[in-house]
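Q: What structure does this chain adopt?
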Amino acid sequence: MREQAQKRKKAYRWGHYAGGLAACWLILKGYRILTRRYGARGGEIDLVIERGSVIAFVEVKARKDFDAALEAIDQTKSRRIGKAIEDWVFRHQPPSGHDLRGDAVIIVPWRFPRHIEDAFGLPLD
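A:
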């Protein structure tokens, strides 16, 4: 039991690190961070970013390889993210004329982060 708790703790710390790394990477690309770790009933958005007229909801995935990270954003995960996105949009009412999209940042050891625009569809489409 203790071993499982240590694994969860390690995964949690790795997730925090990956989120921070993704945020730094996106800032270097010219994005502004609007929200980090936005939680709502049923889901969480890792990052909400903005650049120009685009607001993107970002799922950060840290895995041993790119394919495993992409596979981790399945329908169930997209549905949970979608609930949080709906809540965020309702509460923040982004200005009209902004394009909304679902992005992903993939973190793999010893590689630069990979930012994938339009990685998943939004429930608002």
